[in-house]
Write a structure and sequence with these properties.
The structure holds two protein chains of two kinds. Chain A is an alpha/beta fold. Chain A contains 24 helices and 20 strands. Chain A has an eight-stranded mixed β-sheet, sandwiched between helices. In chain A, strands 3, 4, 5, 9, 10 and 11 form a six-stranded parallel β-sheet that branches. Chain B is an all-alpha fold. Chain B has a domain of about 30 residues. Chain B is elongated, with a radius of gyration of 37 Å. The chains are: A alpha/beta, B mainly alpha.
């Protein structure tokens, strides 16, 4: 990706059409097309299950009603043909079926019998090799429409379409076209009525012979092998077309019946032939070549791919389902453990409790003129002894001047040329006097007890850093409410879980405390990533320090209020987290505490924050498909089920934090809009990470720009402070 | 209040992490080009897939290749071949032999495949249309040689179908209609092939005397 420049481009009506936006859209469209194809071929889309009731037959020509089972309506005719005596044409409808058709084919082969298979396009598309086998073994194929609708309800265009698609599937499966047709829900010639006769005529006008039945074995009723044989036996040597099924249910009886029926009737002098053999006509199959053949093959390929890919997607959906539920389960369980532990009577943080040593509070600020005064004044009300160091990162709006003019005791201002937040924090660390350092943002407001609560965990000498409880201050807007829910449930419930698992991935930049010695050991803040808070936290874990969560250390931040700002913020966080995970990837193979973090914490964080969210769009994909085409009731029920679980977790989080439950009303809407925004953020982060582009917030590293490392402030700086 | 400018600090610079650029950033642009190529290929493949789906669904023809079958007027090769022809021909013997056991009524082809994910068990059950056959068979003359009239003297009593066959597929419940036996409504002239009229509705009378010879 070409590097983005910093200058503001003119506002456009639509974002420019770049590959990184176009590609996901194209992928999504292709996936929808594929799902719809799959639905079509599984008779979920465009399937018509209506069956017409019987109608009067006064408009059907007498000779047809009295005539043979093969009705020839081609070229405007209305004649029928009969099967010669001592010939039986077995016909199997609705195949091919992956389980039963091979068995039927086996038994027919064993007894050297030929039959006619009236296949549906849906099944032929999915099991083309069975159709090829039918042709190879000498059986005949006829059409039975694509989707098995009752054709008397369909328009001519729909009938044409059914025939076309059925032929297409046949061409792809076996490279032939056929001239035989049997309408769904048909039976014998005398059962034709005013509704089905016009269909027969129309199909004839397309060149097909309509093949009906003379003997219905009724095998689909499963009346028993003997009854099936009896039904299928014609009277006194007459020719017959026998109806059987190789699909649509348990056909074990059919197969067993055939094994007895075939040799039995053969002994009585019958021959089992396919239709054109019985009529002594040339084969009903016509091979196709060229474009038609390739279209058929392409069709079969499309369907097979759709089936396979949908299988993969379904596995993905199951995976994300499991992950989501597991995460909820873990969150609930472990937060309960954490809460029970920390709120227990007599809970002490460690041997050095209570911590009363003074604390340095660092406030890096870049163009925070509006908020900096509130921030600093809130610090003044702190109950714990602190000194405040405001580091002005080259602001252009007079932030430093504002603080200097306040002339508050214990507040120092340090200015530097604009070098980014990590550099500002490092400078702050260099200028801080105390050993416990609290880092916050320029627009965060602390409560009087915040600093005190934040540093109490340092009573345990193994603790290197503490994460506070960041809260959204501006939660009256909808977007603020959504972020409020996210902070309370997502971040803070998560933090309890990670505290117990000892793999807290990030200390919020808005409210975090560090031990100076820990910071020194890991080399201070780094600008290798956009998420320096995550980076330093992981570095501390690898160094063996404990990172804990102090729920009572509340800080109020100003969450972004426009979608644009929210997008920016989350993009930085997401991309920065991915950078941090990648930067610390070697922890997976290291020993000691670093290894523990690398093998437990890092995979957990990667799984839940980077990989699982990639699969989450599957939920929406299947939701949309299910709503439009599939089992609507169950889809909606499943979605509401997941929402209920989430609402439960959120309510629990709110109760733990003693928050009012009213903002939870916007939770369903959040699931529809907010989550999707986060997908796009994640997707764009992945694309940026893969293609190696530089984001505009990442500073160009100029040589010599490095601030003094923490703990090594020059003598001149120390004396001047 | 001090102003602190950045000072070059050689030792600190040496202690920087190995990479000169932030994590993932590839200044040379090589990775960008590679992935761009991959992305374009993937996009083209997906686009082609969708386009081919639409193309195959919209194209193609419904016709069947011509199949010459020995017609009813040809010499019968062996056994009986019924000829049911124009009114003047009288050789029609009834096929559809009496006493034949298949029930009249909508056929019992089982439902295709698995119509809905809800699962299919045993296909649609045809209504008890077995009540029908004997009545209608009796109404039709089975003698040969009867001139073929366009309609039977009384319209074949439509079987009082006890109920519609309950269709397969749990997704769409079948309407349980039972059509009363009425005389057919007067036909309008055949409608031109309208796309949405069902074939059954739009069909003209079968012309009584005009059945063309085979």
């Amino acid at each position: 990706m070409p590097a983005r420049t910093n200058h503001r481009s003119p506002r456009r009506l639509m974002p420019p059409l770049r590959l990184r936006r176009l590609l996901p859209l194209v992928l999504l469209l292709a996936m929808m097309a594929m799902l719809m194809l799959r639905g079509y071929v599984h008779s979920e889309i465009l399937a018509d299950h209506r069956i017409r009731a019987e109608a009067p037959a006064d408009r059907v020509p007498r000779q047809i009603l009295d005539g043979g089972p093969v009705v020839d309506t081609r070229g405007g005719r209305a004649t029928s043909l009969d099967v010669p005596d001592h010939r039986i044409v077995l016909t199997f409808d609705d195949g091919p079926d992956p389980k039963w058709t091979p068995e039927v084919l086996d038994v027919l082969k064993k007894h050297h019998a030929h039959a006619v298979f009236f296949i549906t396009g849906t099944m032929a598309s999915r099991y083309p090799d069975l159709v090829q086998r039918m042709v190879d073994e000498g059986h005949e194929i006829g059409l039975h429409t694509f989707n098995h609708p009752d054709l008397s309800y369909q328009s001519k265009r729909r009938i044409d379409w059914e025939l076309t698609q059925n032929q297409l599937a046949l061409e792809g499966a076996a490279g032939i076209r056929t001239s035989l047709f049997r309408p769904p829900y048909s039976s014998s010639a005398d059962a034709l009525d005013n509704a089905s006769w016009p269909v027969t005529r129309y199909v004839g006008s397309r060149g097909y012979l309509t093949v009906l039945t003379t003997a219905d074995s009724e095998d689909w009723r499963r009346p028993g092998v003997r009854q099936v044989i009896r039904n299928a036996t014609p009277k006194a040597g007459r020719g017959a077309i026998v109806l059987m099924h190789d699909s649509g249910g348990d056909r074990a009886q059919t197969v067993r019946a055939l094994d007895t029926y075939l040799p039995g009737l053969r002994k009585q002098g019958y021959a089992f032939q396919n239709l054109t053999e019985a009529l002594e006509a040339p084969s009903a199959h016509t091979p196709v070549t060229g474009a038609d053949l390739w279209k058929g093959r392409a069709w079969v390929f499309l369907v097979t791919t759709a089936d396979d890919l949908t299988g993969v997607l379904v596995v993905g959906l199951a995976a994300i389902g499991v992950l989501v539920l597991a995460r909820f389960g873990l969150m609930l369980l472990l937060s309960a453990v954490h809460t029970r532990r920390t709120r227990r009577r007599g809970f002490t943080r460690g041997p050095d409790a209570p911590v009363t040593a003074p604390v340095s509070v660092l406030v890096p600020a870049y163009n925070e003129a509006k908020c900096i005064e509130n921030t600093v004044r809130s610090l003044m009300r702190s109950e714990h002894p602190i000194e405040v160091v405001v580091i002005d990162d080259g602001s252009a709006d007079g932030t430093a001047r504002i603080v200097e003019d306040l002339a508050l005791p214990g507040v120092r201002v340090v200015r530097q040329h604009n070098a980014g937040k990590p550099a500002a924090l490092n400078r702050g660390i260099a200028n801080a006097r105390h050993d416990l350092i609290v880092m916050m943002d320029g627009d965060t407001v602390f409560e009087p007890a915040t600093v005190g609560e934040l540093v109490q965990p340092f009573a345990d000498p193994a603790v290197g850093a503490v994460a506070g409880n960041a809260k959204v201050g501006n939660k009256d807007t909808l977007i603020g409410a959504w972020q409020h829910i996210e902070y309370v449930m997502g971040f803070n419930l998560d933090r309890r879980m990670y505290d117990v698992l000892r793999c807290m991935p990030t200390i919020p930049g808005a409210v975090g405390a560090f031990r100076r010695s820990a910071l020194n050991r890991v080399g201070g803040m780094s600008d290798d990533t956009l998420a320096e808070d995550t980076d330093i936290t992981m570095a501390l874990h690898r160094d063996g320090w404990k990172v804990v969560y102090a729920e009572k250390a509340r800080a109020w931040t100003e969450a972004p209020e426009s979608v644009q700002q929210l997008w920016s913020q989350r993009y930085r966080w997401c991309y920065g987290t991915m950078q941090a995970i990648w930067k610390h990837r070697r922890a997976v193979v290291e020993k000691g505490p670093s290894g523990r973090f690398g093998r437990v914490g890092l995979p957990l964080v990667s799984l839940f924050m980077v990989l699982a969210p990639l699969l989450a769009p599957l939920i929406d994909l299947f939701l949309v498909y299910g709503l439009l085409f599939g089992p609507t009731g169950r889809t909606v029920a499943a979605w509401f089920g997941v929402l209920a679980v989430q609402a439960g977790c959120a309510a629990y989080a709110f109760v733990l934090d003693r928050e009012r439950l009213t903002p939870l009303i916007s939770l369903p809407l959040q699931q529809i809009l907010y989550r999707q925004l986060m997908y796009v953020v994640l997707l764009q982060s992945w694309i940026t990470a893969l293609t190696g582009g530089r984001l505009r917030w990442q500073k160009l590293r100029r040589k010599g720009q490095v601030a003094a490392p923490p703990g090594e402030s020059t003598v001149a700086e120390r004396s001047a402070a | 209040m001090t102003v602190q400018l950045d000072t070059p600090h050689a030792a600190a610079a040496a202690r920087r992490s190995a990479s000169d650029a932030p994590v993932f950033v590839d200044e040379s642009g090589r990775r960008s080009r590679t992935f761009r190529r991959i992305g374009i290929l993937a996009g083209l493949a997906c686009g082609a897939y969708a386009v081919v789906i639409v193309a195959t669904l919209l194209s193609g023809n419904a016709g069947a290749p011509w199949l010459p079958v020995p017609g009813p007027d040809d010499d019968p090769p062996a056994g009986q071949v019924e000829a049911t022809r124009a009114p003047s021909a009288s050789a029609g013997a009834a096929s559809g032999a009496p006493g034949f056991a298949a029930p009249r009524g909508p056929g019992v082809s089982a439902s295709a495949g698995a119509p809905s994910p809800g699962g299919v068990s045993g296909g649609p059950s045809a209504s008890g249309s077995a009540a029908a056959p004997t009545g209608s068979t009796a109404a039709r003359p089975s003698a040969s040689g009867s001139p073929r009239a366009s309609t039977a003297p009384s319209a074949t009593p439509s079987a009082p179908a006890p109920g519609n066959p309950v269709g397969g597929g749990s997704a769409s419940p079948q309407p349980a209609e039972s059509t009363p036996a009425t005389s057919p409504s007067p036909e309008s002239s055949p409608s031109p092939a309208g796309g949405t009229d069902t074939v059954a509705d739009g069909a003209p009378h079968p012309a009584p005397a005009a059945a063309p010879a085979a």
